[in-house]
Amino acid sequence: MKHFLTFIACSWLVLSLQGNEYEKFTKPLLEKHCYQCHGKEKTKGKVNLYELGSRENFLGKPTLIKEVIEVLDAYDMPPEDELQPSEAERTKLIAQLKEYLRESAKSSSATAKSVKMRRLNRFQYNNAVKDLFRIKKDLFPLTEKLMTRHTPYLKHPDKPMPGKVEVESRALATLDGGGFKEVVPFPKDLRAAHGFDNQANQLTLSPLLLDAFLKLSVSILESPDFHEKTVGIWKEFFAEPQADADLSAELRKRLEPFLEKAFRAPVDEATLDRYSDYAKAKIEQGLSYTDTMKKVSSAVLSSPLFLFRYSAKEEAIPADWTLASNLSFFLWNSIPDEKLLELAKARKLSDPKVLDEQVTRMLRDPKIEGFLDIFPAQWMQLENVLSVNPDPKIYKLFKLDPNRPAGVQMVLEPLLLFDAVFQEERPIVELLSPNFSYQSQFLKDWYTSDLKYPVADTKKIEEDNRKLEEKKQALEKKLQATREQLDALTKPIREKILADREILDGKTEVVDLEPYAGWEFDGDLYSTPDTNPPLNLKAHGKIDYQDGKVVLNKSYLESPKLPIEIKAKTLEVWCELPDINQRAGGVMTMQGPGGLFDSIVYAERKPKHWISGSNNHSRTKDFPESTPETKVLQPLHLVITYAEDGTTTMYRNGQPYGKPYRKGSTSFPKDRTSVVFGLRHLPPGGNKHMNVILDKARFYDRELTAEEVEASYSGSSHYVTKPQLVDAMKPEQKETYEALTQTLSDTSSEIAGLPKPKDPKKFQKEARVKFENEFRAKLRGRSFERVKLSDPRYGGILTNSAMLSMTSGPKRTHPIARGAWVIEVIFNDPPPPPPNDVPPLKDDPAFKKMTIREQFAQHREHPDCAGCHQKLDPLGFALENFDITGRWREKYKNGREVDASGKLLKKYAYSDIVEFKESLSKEERRFAKAFTAHLLRYAVSRELAPTDSLVVESIVEKTTGKGYPVKALIREIVRSEPFLRQ
Is residue 413 within 8 Å of residue 442, measured between CB atoms? Predict the structure, then answer.
């Protein structure tokens, strides 16, 4: 490569053998810089400059002239280790070569032939069909479209880009890219090498692809989504005409403008007759008008006149029509609109003034999105971002969401920058070093945060748990002391009240849950040891104590289902059903074998008390005497008696509740049964949590009479209500009682409000899950904010995570790939493919201790590699501070410092990426020429010929004072001879 470049650069010198310029300037320079390697004695690279030939022979090689100019201009000739010409000599040399190239342009080999025919690519086909039928939705998912704009800023061409925009990438096949139902497109068209997917020689039409077009056209028209609500031309094209309309005339009237627009050319009578006769025949055969027009449309979409773009032929396709088509496919990637067709038909579009007006109009039209969807993405080769797959051991977060990997966020940053530079007509150099960027929250975090999972501070958690336990124990100790003080205060008063009352039956065996202070709670709730019979009550849910009462909040008490000798004939319960936002609550008084139960319930939908029962799980009818009450009675006194004949009688607050009824069984309650308190009977869904406050429960071994029950409630019972207790207190006792009660309530609330101890492992897991969920949300984010760049390392198309990720491997950066991207995209000087026999980098232990620069130093020892490495390495190493996903690093994993220094174009020394970008910005004109060449290639859909470089230089010269804005470059391209000659 080295010797070939020397040959190219030096060969021009022999051109002046017949003139004074050669004798005075060329020959001495040739002898000084080239003959030692490519003269009579040495012919390195099989190049002998001495035998090159005459000036006329050299003029017949325009490609060689163009390459000589490029290597001289890029300082690739002579090689770095050879004697260099002075700047004056180099400048004069390049100027003379350009004159030779202009002279050689007269030959046919120097100028590209116009492309006679080119097929629509997939993106253009989709847009053309949409515009033809005025459909707003894409027909099929477009993976080539890397950015979908949800903020319509292109509708406001006179305004700068908004500070915040909504965009997303729907390019991955795993995402729902939209499209009509049952429409399957042909495969995505591949980009040409170093070019675009609209290049004519790449867009072939094989028999298989032609068949795919036929099937596609049918599927579009037969899609269930293709109807009058989605198709803008439905009424004027597909709808049934008036019954008295002339069918032939109506068909021709509708078909002529439709065919003109579809074929982008005048429609001759023979073509119009062919389509209208076909439609008429179908209708006469019985096919509906709408279905007939669908078949006609399907035939149009699969016609070569629709699928291909043709060069101008004055008889068939006038030049203005071709210009309209080329212009619309360049700027809109679609067919011309009515205005362009109108001007083409009138042969006015080729008028320079009219053409300029139309370009301005088209650049301001929202359909310019067609250009912005494709050119910048393919110019920057951003489709490669979607295949980035870093080692998950290094970057698990990159593909945390497989359907939305980090790449679909990264790709949007450079595309939004291009949109802003385009819309705001900014200098093109701002693509390299802007002072702003559009970033999502994901990108902000990706560039600046450590992206590490949260780590549980085990020692802190343990210390917090210890303090929490100490606080809980202190509160429980205070709670117990308060209860003891409260019991000491109330017990004598309660005993005195009870002593003054008449006892119902002194011989009755009573099972009493008192003393409450004697209860123990450690998974089970026990009665006192002297309870006869002993009741071990299992606690379900949360049990609290308030004012000497058992509080069941979403919980219940249950006796173990074991043989218990209970010969009770009466059950008495004192309780409260708190009004808790009208939630259901209740008490089950007793449950027997076979699902038999009795209960009293307070329900949300029926704000009243009612007593119900069951017989083999069948609920009895509510008692008609149930009376609605809007407030819960406090306290609620329930008594249920069971007669030998199976009759059950219920009492509420001392009064009979409904009439006695028979359960249908004389054995309930049996001697062996289960006793349940606070259990709601099970509705659909199985909710058995209750909200109730139990004051006292007693069992009697006989049936209480109605008089005894009434007396029990009215005051001749063992139960002392809170008002009775307080009324019997002295003023100072009341004050103490209220203070203790408040302390009891406050302390209980404080205990209930204490956080649960943290499990370090569980905390760690929850923290990781939360972190990942938040990260997934950022990966799905569509909001991008315009931020001012305070760090010059970032920003621009060169130092963004998209470009840096797609030019890296799964485990390490690839300086050669990054250098190749820079030289191809930024300088439009793509390197040749590497030789087939080039060995890969060695994978041995010694390499692990080296920097990438040191590894490539050994790689460059291969003779076939040195030339390219000399050119590419400085560009790639300048980006080495960015890792495989575009995040900043100062050192490699082995601890070695990153060295990003180098020299650009053999004249700009730099020590880091900031200085490298500053050096690039100084070469603004060089970048503008490269960018313009890319843009011209895209506009004319072909590779550029040698003399096209002169056109590029002319375009750049005309836009120099403006900073080379993209829109200005586009205007000059449209005016250029290569574009107009298509």
Answer: no
